[in-house]
Write a structure and sequence with these properties.
five-stranded parallel β-sheet; elongated; 5 strands; alpha/beta
C-alpha cells in the first residue's frame, strides 16, 4: 500500500531528528500524532504555489519558508499560506550589510515582513561571523526586543557564516 511522504517519515524516522517537534508553539495537541512535521522550502526549485500544493498533498503539517520582498507578491503568498491550512514558520536569512547599524535596520525590516504572516515563530539565521561577539549580541538583543514589540516569537539559528 503506498504511503505519503509524511507517513513514511513518521514510520521510519521518528526520533532521528528529521522532524521539527513544536510542542511549545501553539499548535493544538494531537494525542494520536505527537510529532508535527514541517517541510522547509530551501533547496526546492518550486514556485510558492507548487511548493504549498506539494507539501499539503504529501501530508505535512506545516512549512518553513521565507516570504517575497515585493509587497503585492508577499500578500498573495501570505493569503495562500493561510488558505492552505498549513502551520507556518518564517525564516530569515540575514542581510549581508557590513555596517552594523544598517545590518540591524535591514534585519528588523525582515522581521516585520515575516511577522505580517503571523507565523508560529520566526527562525532567524542571525548575525555574521565578520561582526564581533559583542556586535552579534547587540543584533540578537535588538531583534528580540523588536519581535516582542510586534508580538511575534523569534528564535536564532546558528548557521554557516554566522557568529
Amino acid at each position: 500500500m503506498p504511503i505519503n511522504r509524511r507517513e513514511f517519515i513518521r514510520q521510519s524516522s521518528l526520533g532521528l531528528g528529521t522532524a521539527m517537534v513544536l510542542p511549545a508553539f501553539s499548535l493544538p495537541p494531537d494525542p494520536a500524532n505527537p510529532v508535527t512535521f514541517f517541510m522547509p522550502q530551501w533547496g526546492t526549485r518550486l514556485s510558492y504555489i507548487d511548493f504549498l500544493e506539494n507539501v499539503k498533498k504529501e501530508g505535512f503539517d506545516g512549512i518553513e519558508m521565507s516570504l517575497p520582498k515585493d509587497d503585492a507578491e508577499r500578500k498573495d503568498v501570505i493569503g495562500k499560506i493561510k488558505a492552505s491550512g498549513l502551520a507556518y514558520v518564517a525564516i530569515i536569512h540575514q542581510p549581508k550589510e557590513l555596517d552594523l547599524k544598517k545590518h540591524i535596520e535591514e534585519a528588523k525590516g525582515y522581521v516585520k515582513m515575516m511577522a505580517e504572516a503571523e507565523p508560529l515563530f520566526i527562525n532567524s539565521h542571525t548575525g555574521k561571523d565578520f561582526f564581533s561577539f559583542a556586535h552579534n549580541q547587540e543584533i540578537i538583543q535588538t531583534l528580540n526586543e523588536y519581535a516582542k514589540s510586534l508580538g511575534v516569537k523569534l528564535i536564532h539559528e546558528t548557521h554557516r557564516g554566522r557568529f
